[in-house]
Specification:
Protein name: Bifunctional inhibitor/plant lipid transfer protein/seed storage helical domain-containing protein
Mean pLDDT: 78
Number of domains: 1
GO molecular function, one term: fatty acid binding
Number of strands: 0
Order of helices and strands: HHHHH
Shape: globular
CATH superfamily: Plant lipid-transfer and hydrophobic proteins
CATH topology: Hydrophobic Seed Protein
CATH class: Mainly Alpha
Keywords: Signal
Pfam families: LTP_2
Organism: Selaginella moellendorffii
CATH architecture: Orthogonal Bundle
Helix content: 40-55%
Largest sheet: none
Distance between the termini: 39 Å
Strand content: under 5%
Oligomer: single chain
Length: 103
């Protein structure tokens, strides 16, 4: 019984962390402005400023996809599949390789 209660507490805490993390994503499009060229062409080398900006999403890589989607919704010309490759081109690990499930 104690083990079941502990498991419920752990699940609750994990869900709370996920909700808080999602709530902290501000979708600040300005953060990705240095990445405009890299978000339009997979052959474009991301600038140092772009890689630094993308690196700020390390703790919440899903927020990167959400911010890309927000930028598209705001009318920025972004090829989302290409934009999703920026972390790899910046040699950053732990990011999604596709933003198809972003909101």
């Amino acid at each position: 019984m104690a083990l079941a209660k502990l498991a419920l507490v752990v699940l609750f805490l994990a869900a709370t962390v996920a909700i808080v993390s999602a709530a902290e994503c501000k979708n600040n499009i300005a953060d990705l402005l240095p990445c405009q060229a890299a978000a339009q062409s997979e052959t474009s080398t991301p600038s140092t400023e772009c890689c630094t900006a993308v690196g700020k999403f390390k703790d919440d890589p899903a927020c990167l996809c959400s911010t890309i989607a927000a930028a598209q919704a705001a009318g920025f010309t972004i090829d989302a599949p290409v934009a999703a490759t920026i972390p790899k081109r910046c040699k950053l690990d732990g990011y999604p390789t596709s933003c198809s499930k972003s909101k």
